[in-house]
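Hi,

I'm pasting everything inline rather than attaching a file, because the server keeps stripping attachments. The sequence lines come first, and each chain or strand is labelled.
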Amino acid sequence: MHFKLLLLALAMTAVALVSKSTALPTEIFIFAIAAIGFNVLYGMFGLLSFGHSVFFGGAAYLCAIVATQYQLSAPVVTLLGGVFGLTVATLFSLLSIRTKGIYFVMLTLTLGQVGFFLALALRSYTGGENGLSDVTRPDVTIAGIKVFDLQDPTAYLVYCGIVLLVIFALVERLRTSPLGSVLGAIRMNESRSGALGYSLGGYRLIAFGLSGFITGIAGALYAGFLRFVPLNVVDIETAEKLVIMAIIGGLRNATGPIVGAAIFLAIADVLSPIWPRWMMLMGVLLVVGVISLRGRGIVDVIGEHLPRLRPGARQMPQGAVTGEQK
Amino acid sequence: MNAYIFPVLNGLGLGMIYFLMAVGLSILFGLLNFVNFAHGAFFLVGAYLCYQVSVLAGSFTVAIILAPLAVALLGWALNKFLLNRVITMSHSAHILITFGIMLVLNELVITIWGPLPQSVQTPAALQGIVQFGDFVYPKYRLFVLVLSSLIALALYLLIVRTKFGALLRAASEQGETVSLLGVNVGRLYSIGFALGGWMAGLGGAMAAPLRGVDPSMGMEALAIAFAVVIVGGLGSFGGALVGGLFIGLVQSLMSMLWPEGARLMIYAAVAVLLIVRPNGLFGRA
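And the predicted assembly:
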């Protein structure tokens, strides 16, 4: 656990040092957080959601408005995004409590559309198609005194990196905890877990809430990063991105989504100037990945070939894509 | 009163296009237990092909015949070469694979035709209006309403009255048993894909002159089709019809009352409905 955290910190530093600008690594860290959030619900609990754009985008809008209007400390704003995500996710969870399987996926997509068109209809707050501009990026302050200035891009990069490390530690700790085992058990066999007396609705609420919380935090960071909130943060395409990142990287642990986010955004950064239709490659990767690797991501494949580097790792149960019930 | 006839007729026309879109999705789910995220892309490709053919051939009639056939071929080929190999995988795998296909088709459309919207000329014979007493209605919208109703009727008869329809229904109840009785189920599935593609393509082709073509219409159509099958329930012909008309009417009437919120109201209505009836109005689990 400590070893993994250290390794991640080193890898993040390396990524930050290698890239020419600070924008790319900052974006990677932020989307890595969001993809970890998505994966808490999918990889850990087995619910595929196309509605995470609402947590991400909604938190971005809310934090942009609040941070611009009031002088708040950056961690407070970040947590506010998390609380927003938690609240909306709880609502989603309650709305979807009776649906499962394909109906659940369709309902999340529908709720995602509700969020998008709500943002469009509330244009006096969100700016509609034009987006929300002139957003203030908050600094870290204690009782109004500035402790840590975040206006510099490098400082903001470090701040986002620290948040990512905290989230990573939290989720990895959760995964190996009794709660994490129960979430995994429900993913693998819902009816048996229910028969054993675990409250399916209660655990769904927990998984959803945590997932929304983490994704909301990422949304809050994103608003501060861009100093602008475009309408597409709340569009389905944001939810799609998170799905692709998690699948490409791997669903079994929190490392997968981070690697997935890095690969996705690095490919986007390299290819988008020379081939604007690079998303086609992502589509092909998704199809080939799911078929040939049966839902295992890059991290899983590497992990299987390097068993000796992971002394504590035993053969893990099947991934979420293949292991769940039909 | 006349103020309401117009949006209601519009809503019915729109609803029938949504029905064409959704019924293929629904049939495939009933038949194969397969969820096709690429269905929106079928609609998109149908609309663009209609645009292209009507520009090249100069005839909308040719376009509306050829474009859906090409999409049917696309659906058939996708099943033949890719999807029938992954049918045994889980629902999430189906979703992710067809979602990937949707991305590829979407980007392909943008590569070929560019990201900007294009308008499609309404055919000369269908321009203008028809007059019933003091009520006037655009000819093209009437054409959409009539043609899609005829196709819905034909599809209904195909499913309920023909041997092929009986096989389709039987295979959707008990695929293995039907296969044991000596029916080539694989071919049935291929035909199902082609039929679904044809209808989605036709929906796209008919919608093209109404709203023009643009690359985002595929995802939009997919979300609407989901809304339709959520309302009606997956795997049900009647459900898709009722769902399509419901969504079309909500959209059309709300566009009159609260234009900015029309889309919002569709999805909000659907979300409420799904909470009350998790499997849709006519759905099965």
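Chain B has one domain: 2-276.

If the labels don't parse on your end, tell me and I'll reformat.
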